[in-house]
Amino acid sequence: MLNYIITVVGGGVCSPEACETARRLGWLLARQGHILLSGGRGGVMEAACRGAHEGGGVAVGILPGEREQANSFVDISIVTGMGQARNVIIVKSADAVIALPGEMGTLSEMALALKMNRPLISLGSWDLPGAQAAKNPEEAVELLEKMNQKCDAAGEEGPLPDIRRC
Amino acid sequence: MLNYIITVVGGGVCSPEACETARRLGWLLARQGHILLSGGRGGVMEAACRGAHEGGGVAVGILPGEREQANSFVDISIVTGMGQARNVIIVKSADAVIALPGEMGTLSEMALALKMNRPLISLGSWDLPGAQAAKNPEEAVELLEKMNQKCDAAGEEGPLPDIRRC
Amino acid sequence: MLNYIITVVGGGVCSPEACETARRLGWLLARQGHILLSGGRGGVMEAACRGAHEGGGVAVGILPGEREQANSFVDISIVTGMGQARNVIIVKSADAVIALPGEMGTLSEMALALKMNRPLISLGSWDLPGAQAAKNPEEAVELLEKMNQKCDAAGEEGPLPDIRRC
Amino acid sequence: MLNYIITVVGGGVCSPEACETARRLGWLLARQGHILLSGGRGGVMEAACRGAHEGGGVAVGILPGEREQANSFVDISIVTGMGQARNVIIVKSADAVIALPGEMGTLSEMALALKMNRPLISLGSWDLPGAQAAKNPEEAVELLEKMNQKCDAAGEEGPLPDIRRC
Predict the structure, then answer these.
(1) Confidence at B22, pLDDT banded by 50, 70, 90
(2) A111 — contact with chain B (CB < 8 Å)?
(3) How far apart are CA B135 and CA A134, in angstroms?
(4) pLDDT at D1
(5) How does residue C163 score in pLDDT terms, banded at 50, 70 and 90?
(6) Nearest-CA neighbor of D81 among D96, D66, D99?
(7) DSSP state of B13
(8) Which site from A47, C96, D4, D33 is most exposed, i.e. has the minimal number of CB atoms within 10 Å?
(9) Chain C: nearest CA to D71, how far in angstroms?
């Protein structure tokens, strides 16, 4: 069952710890039935896609250039040819954004998420006013659950209650 | 099994015949295991998504504005907020493009497909040099099959041999 | 005095005749005080920018990739890094679009112009319903003049009466 | 004489002090012959455009939606219809970026500037590693001058030595 679209952002290169966190996060999101959206490339993105793949989920990658850039765990490649402008699409398509450690690209995506009123969870990433902090992937997914319940309580209907509007 | 990404373009409003053609095309593509990519809105797009849904497939919609624009058969909404610039993404992400009747938006997408070297099948749409004509959805899907076999013959490997490069 | 933004589209390579037409058109537009907007690259674009330069005007180039792509007559380079999606910006920013001979990229821009309700003049380019034909640059500029007068008659005010809305 | 393209970013609403700073900065940039690039809307953007106008310069506005969004001091409106994705163009087209106080949109632009290796000067805005701080518009323009001289010393030639590459 397809559920939410959860965007995971983070560095194109990741430490073993961050990679493991991303992979576990991807796995958990897949097990919850969420679609994983990311930039579709290496590092945090690849690890999260790998986790989603292992969890039996669907990983969508919004690529900056050509399809060849996709990591091997992306199920559906959206090829923009728009460089960094694709970051806007990654964030705008999300019900919620979870940020792992990264550099300036990640920071720009987190700021965009707040600008666009997407719920933002920082999992060891930049500390921004408006972002919620999670210590580990389990806590991040719990935070999503709580948003979800708040949505249910608010009486949203249909197969895709929108976290953002609750 | 996910196979190719096939983009269907056409008018935001469609005649009963064009709607029925689009729906049947969506159904056939889904039965072949292809992912249906479209602009995610009404008319030809909605009919094709409906067909894909009925065929048990996956319909991805690349939306010009907000998520609310998606027709009710879109499984995965990619929200660009980029207006007509999203047409470039629809075409660029495709292994092949199938065009149904439409106006200037459709014509611009067909021209883009040729500009970007995507195989283009015209199913009752504009007649452009470089596009292949198909009389009905079955013939369109047969044309895709032939491209596919040409790819196989060319020795492409992996789960996603790329029609475009064969 | 800056006047209208007139977009010139056409092939990235041009015949001596088309180049000469583009150059003369750029010159005429500059002499009328219009800003020349184009894709900023070679062929028709470069010839038009050259003409604008020789006419003492301002040439703005909306580039698909990096600044290095600009021809040497572009005064102001807007660097999008968005590939073909920059075509949407070229058309959307225009008060009117004049098309010279070109291939599929040009056709997609002409179709976009009609889709976006921009006045479109075909100067030896594709013949589309809704486009006005001009035989030479002088006639194209006369057509702009007439649109302009129609605007004035409609009582539009300010330094930038918008051709599109008259 | 057109010189560099300097992008000014900052909040769509500004305090009287920030507005006055932006206006003075726009004026100084215009007096130095630079082209002022901005998002073309209100607040810091409008104040900077106003200053450029008063200084006899050229203000280019890269608009997120339609032309009507431009403030009244924009000389050349580039209409993208791409929402926040236009921020990428603003930064990518710049020889250097100067940031004034702003919220998340401004932060995302500053992060993008660093990501894209554009020289970034913070004039009372977010404090990011890699940004240079300036206390007032005069100091910001002096920092640009120094980059310029470094370029000259590096032997760059032509009318548009590119700050970024020195």
Answers:
(1) very high
(2) no
(3) 56
(4) 38
(5) low
(6) D66
(7) S
(8) D33
(9) 13
> For residue C158, what pLDDT is reported?
44
**Which H, E and C letters describe chain D, residue by residue?**
CCCCEEEEECCCCCCHHHHHHHHHHHHHHHHCCCEEEECCCCCHHHHHHHHHHHCCCEEEEEECCCHHHCCCCCCEEEECCCHHHHHHHHHHCCCEEEECCCCHHHHHHHHHHHHCCCCEEECCCCCCCCCEECCCHHHHHHHHHHHHHHHHHCCCCCCCCCHHHC
| Segment A102-149, tens digit of pLDDT | 999 999 999 999 999 999 999 999 999 999 999 999 999 999 988 876
What are the φ and ψ backbone dihedral angles of D97, each rounded to 5 degrees? -120, 130
d(CA B12, CA A155): 32
Strands D132-133 and D58-63 turn out to be unpaired
Q: What percent of chain C has pLDDT over 70?
A: 88
Amino acid, res. B46 = E
pLDDT(B104) > 50: yes
pLDDT band at A3 (very low <50, low <70, confident <90, very high): confident
- The upper half-sphere exposure of residue D83, i.e. CA atoms within 13 Å in the direction of its Cβ, equals 21
Residue C81 touches chain A, beta carbons under 8 Å: yes
Residues of C in contact with B82 (CB under 8 A): 85, 88
pLDDT band for position A157 (cuts 50, 70, 90): very low
Distance of CA B104 to the CA centre of its chain: 17
Residue range D124-162, pLDDT digits in tens: 999 999 999 999 999 999 999 888 776 666 555 444 455
With CB atoms and an 8 Å threshold, state whether A78 touches B88. Answer: no
**CB distance from A13 to chain D under 8 Å?**
no
Which chain D residue has the Cα nearest residue B64?
D82
Q: Which of C75, C77, C92 to mutate to test the interface with D (most CBs of D within 10 A)?
A: C92
Backbone Cα Rg of chain B: 14
Name the token pair of D148: 């310029």
Structure tokens at D165: 């590459």
| The two structure tokens encoding residue C143 | 């057509």
pLDDT at B159 over 90: no
pLDDT band at residue A162 using 50, 70 and 90 as cut-offs: low
Q: What is the mean pLDDT of residues D68-73?
A: 97
Longest CA pairwise span in chain A (Å): 43
Identify whether the C-beta of residue B39 lies closer than 8 Å to the C-beta of residue B9. Answer: yes
Query: Helix, strand, or coil here: C96?
Result: strand
- Flag if A88 and B81 touch (Cβ within 8 Å): yes
Extract the tokens encoding D6. 């300097």
d(CA A82, CA C55): 34
Q: Taking a C-beta distance cutoff of 8 angstroms, is the pair C60, C36 a contact? A: yes
Residue B130: burial class (beta carbons within 10 Å; 0-12, 13-18, 19+): middle
The tokens for C8 are 């010139």
Residue B75: the pLDDT is: 96
- Kindly state the average pLDDT of the residues D13-38: 97
